[in-house]
């Protein structure tokens, strides 16, 4: 087993992987307005993105801008031949986390009737946060929905109906989707496709599907021109590890099968004033539109019948060209095959090269040590950046530098374990080639164990260790049975796992790095990012000593990656932590309560405010949160007017009209012991034992005031806490703060006023 052939195999494998990765990452070419009427055209859809984000601007629920957007969408859809359009104005209530939410929402619905009433729903929300123009989130999805309906209407009549829900309340708790489910058209829906975005670039990722919906994923895999997706997103969101929510949750709660598509890359402007059309990467809208249109045609033209009993084992794409979908049964067959190949390779290595069970366990032990050090060294380096040097988060503005640095630190840990093993083997007089087999076999043992554990836990992302084990076992067999083809064996061991792992790392980091800027955590997240980079490298780095053993070039490898790690670590300590394109975020809220008035300012990344906050003493800037007194609070309080009171035996009914400032939300807290009932058409919810009040959250109260009747126990006055709250820089102080922020800082703002009313 020649190290030289291993080196050549490594070079070939890396070149193949890198070339294919670059080819897959090429953006889609946008189609012009002159494209065929049946094709999706980014140029035709683009003016709607510009109108929503630049022409109208932020569109929070209940605002005049949201109403303007809804009317514009109505006009555009009514211009499509054969498309029925309705404006749905719906009110409702829902109980969430101990709070009864009362809402009013406007949805713009369109229906392209097929030969059969059964329908496929295409959904996207047109509202946006108060501070964001919402070009990506979700101008991309809305423009895609309108252009897809136009393209469908230009083609043959489908067998099944297509319903489009452009809803107005996703950002306020997925209220638009909830409202749509009360519409008569919702009764015909058999499946849905939801469109959303956290990023302004890259290709649209299919990151989750409703449970048991293999037929939907198979349609996607067969129909779309450039499939991109992974079940990892479904595993992460299902576990709660990633705090992201879309209308997908609302539809699946209604037992509808469906898929979630979203753009992830360049999420630095997500929910900020920077989410504008100029930030969107060319081709991103085209890719989202091409895939959405192709999927809908695959679902409605031949009238696919849902097969809910067909569960999904896993799904993932390869180089944006092939989508793999298989069932749990196939997943377990893959596990059995991986272990069979592994046992076969071990048997061949035992017969041909003298590999022993003790050798496999020894290889697993040393490989495990390499994995531990491969994680511990970058984690230590990350913690030293913030804890010792006081320079965390350099990777936020320079993600490639963080990837190179933490990756190099991980390789340092792996090479250090190889050096220790080399010295141990030298004392035993071990053979270099046998040690390589032991390392390879030990890594397969770890991979097989992880594969079994993840499969038993029902994680679809077990496909990652599956491909590593399948490739690694096949490669080991080739290397043992045909030693001259050692390099080919290395390529077989490297490529399958590296292909899917590289894609996953890219997606996870594209989502995670910008997300750290607004998680509102009390500590720096350098360690988490270091582990995200190092984990896949540590899992695959056992291949490196096979190519460059310590005695045959490993020292030079350690020296090279060590130098890279030191230089990168020093650079991370020196570079700015933010830029105009990748700004830090703060949150400023002016709160007025009976106890006083305060402006609370927080850095959303857990770091000290530093220079983010102008006009604050240096002693205050060392903290991630400051409380500043308000001398003249200006945000008005809610007002309560008792319209009627009727006394009955042991109880009384009080009808109150509540008035709040324009665009503000209303929150009422009524003592638990005093409330008997209300006029909301919903029974009193069952509260947890530690809650002492019923909470009502009125999302968009009418401008003329909101009336509520409460049935209260006894005749004694009841103290009700009422809070009016509005998002945005709605006071002179908040406006001045926003204007004073540096270009590399962005912010979100709110004002609230709480009073106590005796009823």
Task: List unreliable stretches of 5+ residues.
Answer: none
* Main β-sheet description: 14 strands, mixed
- Fraction in helix: 40-55%
How much of the polypeptide forms β-strand, as a percent range?
15-25%
Distance between the termini: 87 Å
C-alpha Rg, in Å? Answer: 29 Å
> What is the helix tally?
21
Compute the number of strand runs. Answer: 20
Which class of secondary structure composition applies to the elements?
alpha+beta
What average pLDDT do the residues reach? 89
**What is the overall silhouette?**
globular
Descriptive labels:
single chain, 759 residues, alpha+beta, four-stranded antiparallel sheet, 21 helices, globular
Account of the 3D structure:
This protein has 21 helices and 20 strands. The chain is an alpha+beta fold. The strands form three sheets. Strands 1, 2, 3, 4, 5, 6, 7, 10, 11, 12, 15, 17, 19 and 20 form a 14-stranded mixed β-sheet that branches. A hairpin with a 2-residue loop joins strand 13 and strand 14. Helix 13 (399-428) crosses helix 17 and helix 14 (432-456) packs antiparallel against helix 15. The termini are far apart. The relative contact order is 0.10. The model has no long low-confidence stretch (mean pLDDT 89).
Summarize the structure.
With 759 residues, this protein is α+β, with helices and mostly antiparallel strands.
List the helices and strands and how they pair.
Blueprint: H1 3-24, H2 42-56, H3 64-78, E1 83-96, E2 99-112, E3 116-125, H4 135-153, E4 160-167, H5 175-180, E5 189-197, E6 205-209, H6 214-223, H7 232-239, H8 248-253, E7 258-263, H9 284-300, E8 314-318, E9 322-326, H10 328-353, H11 357-387, H12 394-397, H13 399-428, H14 432-456, H15 463-481, H16 486-515, H17 526-540, H18 543-547, H19 554-574, E10 584-593, E11 596-603, H20 618-621, E12 625-629, E13 639-648, E14 651-659, E15 665-671, E16 675-678, E17 693-698, E18 706-713, E19 719-727, H21 732-740, E20 745-758
Parallel strand pairs: 2-17, 3-4, 3-5, 5-7, 10-20
Antiparallel strand pairs: 1-2, 2-4, 6-7, 8-9, 10-11, 11-12, 13-14, 14-18, 15-17, 15-19, 16-18, 19-20
């Amino acid at each position: 087993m020649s190290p030289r052939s291993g080196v050549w195999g490594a070079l070939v494998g890396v070149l193949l992987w890198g070339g294919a990765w670059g080819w897959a990452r090429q953006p889609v070419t946008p189609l012009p307005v002159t494209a065929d009427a049946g094709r999706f055209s980014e140029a035709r859809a683009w003016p709607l993105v510009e109108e929503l984000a630049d022409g109208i601007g932020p569109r929070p629920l209940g605002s005049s801008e949201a109403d303007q957007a809804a009317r514009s969408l109505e006009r555009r859809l009514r211009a499509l031949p054969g498309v029925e359009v309705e404006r749905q104005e719906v009110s409702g209530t829902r109980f969430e986390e101990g709070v009864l939410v009362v809402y009013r929402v406007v949805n713009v619905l369109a229906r392209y009737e097929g030969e059969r009433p059964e329908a496929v729903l295409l959904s996207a929300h047109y509202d946006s946060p108060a501070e964001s123009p919402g070009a990506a989130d979700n101008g991309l999805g809305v423009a895609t929905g309108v252009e897809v309906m136009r393209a469908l209407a230009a083609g043959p009549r489908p067998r099944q109906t297509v319903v489009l829900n452009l809803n107005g309340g996703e950002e306020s708790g997925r209220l638009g989707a909830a409202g749509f489910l009360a519409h008569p058209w919702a009764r015909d829906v058999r499946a849905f496709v939801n469109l959303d975005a956290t990023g302004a670039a890259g290709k649209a990722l299919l990151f989750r599907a409703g449970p048991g919906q293999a037929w939907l994923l198979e349609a996607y895999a067969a129909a779309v021109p450039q499939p991109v997706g992974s079940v990892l997103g479904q595993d992460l969101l299902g576990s709660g590890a990633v705090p992201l929510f879309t209308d997908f949750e609302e539809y699946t709660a209604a037992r509808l099968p469906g898929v979630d598509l979203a753009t992830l890359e360049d999420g630095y402007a997500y929910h900020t004033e920077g989410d504008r059309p100029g930030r969107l990467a060319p081709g991103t809208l085209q890719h989202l539109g091409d895939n959405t249109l192709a999927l809908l045609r695959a679902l409605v033209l031949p009238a696919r019948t849902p097969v809910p009993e067909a569960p999904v084992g896993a799904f993932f794409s390869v180089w944006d060209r092939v989508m793999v979908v298989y069932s749990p049964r196939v997943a377990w067959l893959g596990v059995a095959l991986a272990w069979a190949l592994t046992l076969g390779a071990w048997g061949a290595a035992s017969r041909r090269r003298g590999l022993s069970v003790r050798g496999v366990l020894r290889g697993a032990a040393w490989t495990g040590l390499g994995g531990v050090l491969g994680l511990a060294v970058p984690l230590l380096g990350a913690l030293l950046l913030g804890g010792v040097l006081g320079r965390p988060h350099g990777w936020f503005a320079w993600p490639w530098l963080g990837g190179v640095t933490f990756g190099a630190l991980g390789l340092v840990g792996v090479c250090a374990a190889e050096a220790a093993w080399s010295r141990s083997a030298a004392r035993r007089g071990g053979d270099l080639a046998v040690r390589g087999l032991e390392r390879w076999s030990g890594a397969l043992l770890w991979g097989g164990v992880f594969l079994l554990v993840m499969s038993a836990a029902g994680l679809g992302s077990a496909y990652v260790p599956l491909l590593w084990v399948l490739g690694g076992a096949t490669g080991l067999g080739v290397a043992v049975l045909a030693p001259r083809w050692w390099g080919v064996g290395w390529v077989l061991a490297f490529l399958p796992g590296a292909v899917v792992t590289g894609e996953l790392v890219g997606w996870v980091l594209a989502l995670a790095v910008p997300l750290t800027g607004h998680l509102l955590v009390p500590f720096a997240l350098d360690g988490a990012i270091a582990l995200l980079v190092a984990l896949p490298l540590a899992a695959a780095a056992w291949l490196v000593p096979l190519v460059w053993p310590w005695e045959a070039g490993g020292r030079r490898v350690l020296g090279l990656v060590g130098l890279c790690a030191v230089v990168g670590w020093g650079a991370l300590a020196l570079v700015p932590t933010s830029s105009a394109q990748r700004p830090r975020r703060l949150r400023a809220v002016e709160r007025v309560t009976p106890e006083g008035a305060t402006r609370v300012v927080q850095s959303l990344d857990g770091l000290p405010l530093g220079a983010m906050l102008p006009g604050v003493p240096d002693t205050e800037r060392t903290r991630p949160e400051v409380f500043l007194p308000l001398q003249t609070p200006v945000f008005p309080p809610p007002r309560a007017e008792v319209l009627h009171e009727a006394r009955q035996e042991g109880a009384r009914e009080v009808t109150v009209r509540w008035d709040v400032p324009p665009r503000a939300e209303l929150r009422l807290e009524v003592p638990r012991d005093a409330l008997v009932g209300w006029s909301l058409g919903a029974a009193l919810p069952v509260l947890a034992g530690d809650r002492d009040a019923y909470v009502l959250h009125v999302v968009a109260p009418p401008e003329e005031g909101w009336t509520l009747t409460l049935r209260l126990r006894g005749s004694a006055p009841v103290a009700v806490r009422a809070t009016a709250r509005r998002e945005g820089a709605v006071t002179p102080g908040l406006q001045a703060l926003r204007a004073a922020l540096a270009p590399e800082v962005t912010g979100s703002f709110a004002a609230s006023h709480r009073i106590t009313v005796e009823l």
